[in-house]
Amino acid sequence: MDVSANTDGGDDAYVIGVDFGTLSARALVVRVRDGAEAGTAVSEYPHGAIDRSLDGYGELPPDWALQDPADYTRALGEAVPAAIRDAGIDPAQVIGIATDFTASTCMPVLADGTPLCQLPGLAARPHAYPKLWKHHAAQPHADRINAVAHERGEKWINRYGGKISSEWQFAKALQLLDEDPELYQRAGRWIEAADWIIWQLCGAETRNACTAGYKGIYQDGSYPSREYLAALDPRFASFAQDKLAHPISPLGARAGGLTAAAAALTGLPAGIAVAIGNVDAHVTVPAAGPVATGKMVAIMGTSTCHVMNGAELAEVPGMCGAVDGGIVAGMWGYEAGQSGVGDIFAWFARNGVPGEFADEARRRGVSVQQLLDEKTVADPVGAHGLIALDWEGGNRSVLVDGRLSGAIVGLTLATTAPEIYRALLESTALGTRKIIETFDESGVPVTKLVVAGGLIKSKPLMQIYADVTRRPLSVIGSDQGPALGSAIHAAVAAGAYPDVPAAADAMGRINSDVYQPDSARADVYDELYAEYVRLHDYFGRGENKAMYRLRAIRDRVLYERPEEGKREAADQ
Amino acid sequence: MDVSANTDGGDDAYVIGVDFGTLSARALVVRVRDGAEAGTAVSEYPHGAIDRSLDGYGELPPDWALQDPADYTRALGEAVPAAIRDAGIDPAQVIGIATDFTASTCMPVLADGTPLCQLPGLAARPHAYPKLWKHHAAQPHADRINAVAHERGEKWINRYGGKISSEWQFAKALQLLDEDPELYQRAGRWIEAADWIIWQLCGAETRNACTAGYKGIYQDGSYPSREYLAALDPRFASFAQDKLAHPISPLGARAGGLTAAAAALTGLPAGIAVAIGNVDAHVTVPAAGPVATGKMVAIMGTSTCHVMNGAELAEVPGMCGAVDGGIVAGMWGYEAGQSGVGDIFAWFARNGVPGEFADEARRRGVSVQQLLDEKTVADPVGAHGLIALDWEGGNRSVLVDGRLSGAIVGLTLATTAPEIYRALLESTALGTRKIIETFDESGVPVTKLVVAGGLIKSKPLMQIYADVTRRPLSVIGSDQGPALGSAIHAAVAAGAYPDVPAAADAMGRINSDVYQPDSARADVYDELYAEYVRLHDYFGRGENKAMYRLRAIRDRVLYERPEEGKREAADQ
Questions:
Q1: Cβ atoms A60, A126 nearer than 8 A
Q2: What is the C-alpha separation between A203 and A197, in angstroms, rounded?
Q3: Which of A167, A275, A369, B473 is the most exposed place for a label (fewest CB within 10 A)?
Q4: What is the Cα–Cα distance from A268 to A96, expressed in whole angstroms?
Q5: Taking Cα atoms as reference points, which of A45, A316, A12 lies closest to residue A159?
Q6: Radius of gyration of chain A, Cα coordinates, nearest whole angstrom
Q7: How many CA atoms lie within 13 A of B279 on its CB side?
Q8: How far off is chain B from A254, nearest CA to CA, in Å?
Q9: Contact state of A358 with B353 under an 8 Å Cβ cutoff
Q10: Which residue of A has its CA nearest to B525?
């Protein structure tokens, strides 16, 4: 088949993929016929992740993380034209645009899509803002969601490994209802940023199958029942019906045409195809070449998402979700994840490394993290005597609990910062191994491990992952996996390919088996993995709930001291 | 009684106390009649603690820590004359000198006292050097000592909480025998640095009751039997008889007169009283004023020693030792300890704190540790959500195991370096509480808690100790507790007082109940203590031997890789 024959713009047709990340958005200009990346540009969000304090409000409680939606539209207006300029193409050659987003990043908006935080008088109300994926303050609400689901025997709960995450739509919405009921009432819609940005491009509300399934508990054609929601809180009974319900669109479908306003913002032609919204991790799968069952793609950035297609439905303990058509229409999409990965490395590089290393890195023109990689890459596995749990950002799989926290065991007076850094790198690899083994044991075997995302640049880290998992590591052939994946969806939405797998064959790229496991190193990692699993179960499965109690003490002394009153109360 | 009537030099008589620490020695000139401190001086050891590499040998294995005895004699020649100058007195006014030392810091010497490391051809042999107290590489030997003692039902083992430490004379000597048998043979004597330094001053070998009892397993008038030692290793059968045996002298006794050579070295009059050797921690007790049973003195420096007199003998699990006359002649001296305290804080300040704090400290002219103290002093107890085990230097009491290591639980992406620092401060206070409770539960109640040592300068740390232990904290009235304690012993040896308690009444100083516990903070610390105890027992009492296994993996990959061979073997 000559796929180019389907392309509106012929051999010189291009599509735009825009990847909305945690701190910035990247636009990528991609040639439709072969996936060649012609140009790119990044727009940093001026407000970044709002996790310490909010202007006009003051210090946020722990575990909060918000964003400003104005940063998203600003990024469209900045990154898209800049990427077109970088590519040196004529905007008229662009036949479609698609986006992907962090998730669940969700927000309250009016019925017309206006974010509540942009209404007069609401700028200092934390609950009026989008709650970023890594907002972990809705854990009590997730607990309630899970407890009531199990009590009532809700069937959908097993599609999510038995646990709904505090990061998702329902937990965050329930927190809004609990803590700022007035804003809850004013929210005409509760929407993923992934869908909201499409609204800004094509002028109409849409809902994509991916976030609806993975983050919105949409299974077998419906949301959780009115009775279930009422059992959570009578005021919550009509939440799905009032604030979520909308036809669900398959990934790669056309959401509409680019509006005149969006055309003016982006410099693209009005009327070109706008694809249905998508999620940064899931959209990356076709960017890594041919779509196949058993091929796990780990998108490693601030956090890691593990996404994989399966032919059939299975229940995997502690995964994030199994969704029909959640990654590619027609297959069951599986998702697991680690809440903190690059985030943990960056946290340690900022907070745990003496100045001498920063000075050396500056002198040599490398990042602190690159320097730390180098400092221990030659050390034999196990030489640091350390084991760490990778839960500084909570545990998304397989324990699904944002209240878990990090731990380091084996410190001595001879332990150095680079050694701790390496133990943290390893902790995330051990966490990934735990996830892979859980899939294997649940009848969804992982037959090929592919890595994507910003962290693939660290060769020492990649080798650790190959050694720890004892598997060859294949690497996506693009530095911009999510944006390329979005571009693939744009091409499908524009009609250039019949479906996403066909577009992935033509436009995706993979380098197979780049890192091979070393069996001597893998043998020692087997020992360290045994230590990891033991501590994982000890702290994570209830034998010692120290992490929960420490967090509860922290929250109590910080937010429930009688002389100060509850900060939450002040917000109401 | 007019004690000054007993003073050879009348009202203007002085004594010298010299405190040999881990990295330096301090001489203190003290007026005999009232303990007034007239002058002081410090001499840094040029070789410090030799724990990374040894000239001519190369990198030392992990857990090694040696010293160079030439640093000790050099310190006598430097600090004593400088302290006399600082005091502005005539050396002829000095009627006695006494010293105290870290322990067990022990060494192989010829029959005439010459250290083996000073013999031709032995300078590059690690085993020829004194093994510093914090040399922890003899743990396998301590294990053998303990196992065989329990198998044979040796009664003395219960005087040491059921465990002999890897830090003590027998474990270190057995390591010498195992790893460098030729040097073991050449050692005519195996002697504490505390006694060796007295040999240099008075020209004769002596053995003091304190190190013999606490570090040399000397109980009820004898060392462990020939049969027991042969069971450890047939070549070790006559160890005590050949290399240790010597009359034991009570603390405060006169060892002899200052030799002409030592007089030339120190600038003091030949023939003045030299007191029997002593240990830095134990000698501090009389420096803190009146001697009484139940008064625990915690000497807090790089490590902490908890010393206390009791009227009767009791067996306290995991203490370091109960020795008749071990602190003050006529009472049972109890000792417990924490292997790392100030060492842990200094390790973290060096290895775990970003440059911005070092820069701020420099700008403000404070130490990094002072700055970190300040940064979290106002935080509510428990606000950091962390709990740490204080075993970065092993556990001396109540688990008595140098292979244990540190752990931190509760880390999040919001955790800061000052918060970790505070959790480390608290971990040592929680460890002290564990020791106090163990004494209380064993029939040796702690009725008064006194702190001494370099760490008393940190008021935030002291308040943490008061809050964590829920006890008022009394503070020694001298910044130079050990040196003052030595001076008190010099005065007794010179005949200025009839005994140490009488001298302590006149020359010691204490400020009672300086820090009061705050009950609200203490309540939260009770919760954190429960977490501490749980992790203490989990990692320390065999439920999860992860720390042992991690250490074993480390040692194996570092020292037993076939391509490198054993470093120890290369030494033989």
A1: yes
A2: 10
A3: A369
A4: 9
A5: A316
A6: 23
A7: 30
A8: 39
A9: no
A10: A553
Determine whether A336 is exposed, middle or buried from the number of CB atoms within 10 Å of its CB (0-12, 13-18, 19+): buried
HSE-up (13 A, CA, CB side) for residue B512 = 5
Give the DSSP H or E segment for A59: strand A58-59
How far B276 CA lies from chain A's nearest CA (Å)? Answer: 33
Interface contact B351-A416, CB threshold 8 A? yes
Taking the C-alpha atoms of A217, A223, A225 and A228 in order, what is their torsion angle to the nearest 10 degrees?
Answer: 20
Per-residue tokens: B35? 């303990």
pTM attached to this predicted model: 0.86
Q: Order of strands across the sheet with A94-101?
A: A37-44, A24-31, A14-20, A94-101, A273-275, A254-257
Q: Can you list the alpha helix ranges (DSSP code H) found in A250-308?
A: 260-266, 284-287
pLDDT at A400: 85
Q: Count A/B contacts: CB-CB distance under 8 Å.
A: 173
Contacts of A417 in chain B (CB under 8 A): 351-352
A interface mutation test: which of B23, B135, B302, B351 has the most A CBs within 10 A? B351
d(CA B126, CA B123): 8
Residue range A476-491, pLDDT digits in tens: 999 999 999 999 999 9
Q: Which helix (H) or strand (E) holds B518?
A: none
Chain B neighbors of A22, CB-CB under 8 A: none
Cα Rg for chain B, rounded, in angstroms? 23
CA distance A404 to chain B (A): 8
Tokens of A561: 């001291």
DSSP symbol at B564: T
Place of tokens 């899939």: A439
Q: Where are the alpha helices (DSSP H) in B354-495?
A: 355-364, 368-377, 417-441, 459-469, 481-493
- What's the start-to-end Cα distance of chain A, in Å? 61
Per-residue pLDDT of B13-40, as tens digits, reads: 999 999 999 999 999 999 999 999 999 9
Secondary structure in 3-state letters for B263-318: HHHHCCCCCCEEECCCECCCCHHHHCCCCCECEEEEEECCCEEEEEEECCCCCCCC
User: Token match 């198998």: residue?
Assistant: B151
**Of B411, B528, B547, Cβ closest to residue A405:** B411
How far A481 CA sits from the closest chain B CA (Å)? 26
The one-letter amino acid at A492 = V
Task: Give the three-class secondary structure for A1.
Answer: coil
Residue given tokens 């820590």 in the structure block: B65
Cα gap B214→B277, rounded to integer Å: 13
pLDDT tens by residue, A108-118: 999 999 999 99
pLDDT tens track for A183-220:
999 999 999 999 999 999 999 999 999 999 999 999 99
DSSP of B170-202, one letter per residue? Answer: HHHHHHHHHH-HHHHHH-SEEEEHHHHHHHHHH
The letter for the amino acid at A370 is Q
Q: Is the pLDDT of residue B335 over 70?
A: yes
Which ipTM score applies to this complex? Answer: 0.86
Per-residue HEC secondary structure of B88-127 comes to: CCCHHHEEEEEEEECCCCEEEECCCCCEHHHCCCCCCCHH
pLDDT of residue B5: 37
pLDDT > 90: what percent of chain B?
Answer: 91
Contacts (Cβ under 8 Å, ≥6 apart) of A130:
A66, A67, A68, A69, A105, A106, A107, A115, A117, A193
Report d(CA A564, CA A52) in Å as an integer.
Answer: 19
A314 φ, ψ (degrees, to nearest 5): -135, 160
Sign of CA dihedral A184, A190, A194, A196: negative
Interface test with B, best of A353, A360, A412 (most B CBs within 10 A): A412
